[in-house]
Amino acid sequence: MRILLTGGHGFIGRALVPLLRAQGHEVLAPRRGESGFPADLAALDGWADWPDRLDAVAHLAALNPERGDAASRDDAALMRANVAATKALAERAVRSGARRFVLASTLLVHPFSPAPIREDSPTAPQNSYAASKLAAETALRRAVEGSATGGTVLRLAPVYGEGGRGGVHALLRLAQGPLPLPFGGGARRSFLSRRNAADAIAFALTDERAAGETFLVADSEALRIGDFVARARKLQGRSPRLVTLPGGLLRAAARALGKGEVHDRLFAGLEADTTRLRRAGWTPPRTLDEGLRDALSGSASQRS
Predict the structure, then answer these.
(1) What DSSP designation does 208 have?
(2) Is the dihedral of CA 298, 105, 220, 114 positive or negative?
(3) Is 218 helix (H, G, I), strand (E, B) or coil?
């Protein structure tokens, strides 16, 4: 297959490009703003070098600011980067006759839940970024409706791996520290290693069973936050060093420090039921332990 990949030089893209090429596919991964490829993908119609004979498009590029950054509250910028760009790219893919378009979305389009989340569970985006990705899903479906292009949406659980950032990596940094952590208890959460994410995207690009579908994507195991920390520390040959505090006490302390929202996010449930994707034919090729080893070794090399 001849595949156009946006975000090919990003966190997941750096794992996906070599995987697709090893499978025998031709991968075109232009850098935004270089060699005529537009920095603003919403202006894609101005790109004169759209590849011919294109079989598929994988859209990973997105504006995904760190929590607390001013950009995370810039709804207009998020909607242009994540929605208008998806619309422009999908419409161009349809016109060129591409057979498949895969959009990387996020599990965070769903609210926290005490029960496992499915593709048809209620949506209530947890932040502005997730809201823009949910709108991008709608833009994709409208763009491919009635065409020969099959649109596939992958709602990825929080992704971790070498060179990552965000909440999961903040948690791994804490796990690598010496202090006991008050993470006993809580509900189960899903995570996704970078290599499993890349493998799922490759499956969605190439397998006919994925055409037109929306899938939740996660590692095979879902863990409580404390269990995730304990697993990371065990892989480093260390004891878990977790402290279980009464839920009310910990919540009150967090709110007194102005961190009540952080407490609620840490201990709320966000477990993905990936039955639909497994039935379509994909299972994670790497275990959670293997993914954690990659992430921990990458963090160690960055510190050295």
Answers:
(1) G
(2) positive
(3) coil
For the segment 293-299, the average pLDDT, to the nearest whole number, is: 81
Tell me the pLDDT tens digit for each residue of 64-74.
Answer: 987 767 766 78
Residues 143-175: b if buried by 16+ CB within 10 A, e if exposed: bbeebebbbbbbbbbbbbbbebeeebbebbeeb
CA distance 193 to 85: 26
φ/ψ of 40, rounded to 5, equals: -100, 105
Under DSSP, is residue 41 helix (H, G, I), strand (E, B) or coil? helix
Tell me the per-residue pLDDT of 107-128, one tens digit each, with 9 for 90 and over: 999 999 999 999 999 999 999 9
Q: Is residue 171 part of a domain?
A: no
Are 286 and 195 in contact by the 8 Å Cβ rule? The answer is yes
Contacts 24+ apart (CB under 8 A), 164-171: 164/11, 164/194, 164/295, 165/11, 165/66, 166/66, 166/67, 167/67, 167/265, 169/295, 169/299, 171/225, 171/228, 171/229
Question: How many domains does the structure of the chain reveal?
Answer: 1
Note whether residue 72 is domain-resident.
yes
pLDDT class of 213 with cuts at 50, 70, 90: very high
Residue whose pair of structure tokens reads 């207009």 in the numeric block: 76
Q: What is the spatial distance between Cα 243 and Cα 256, in angstroms, rounded to a whole number?
A: 19
Q: How does residue 247 score in pLDDT terms, banded at 50, 70 and 90?
A: low
- 255 is a domain residue: no
Residue 46 is part of a domain; what is its CATH number?
3.40.50.720
Contacts of 274 (CB under 8 A, 6+ apart): 215, 216, 217, 218
249 burial via Cβ count (<10 Å: 0-12, 13-18, 19+): exposed
Q: C-alpha angle with apex 89: 103 to 124, nearest 5 degrees? A: 40
Q: Which of 197, 193, 113 is nearest to 155 (CA)?
A: 197
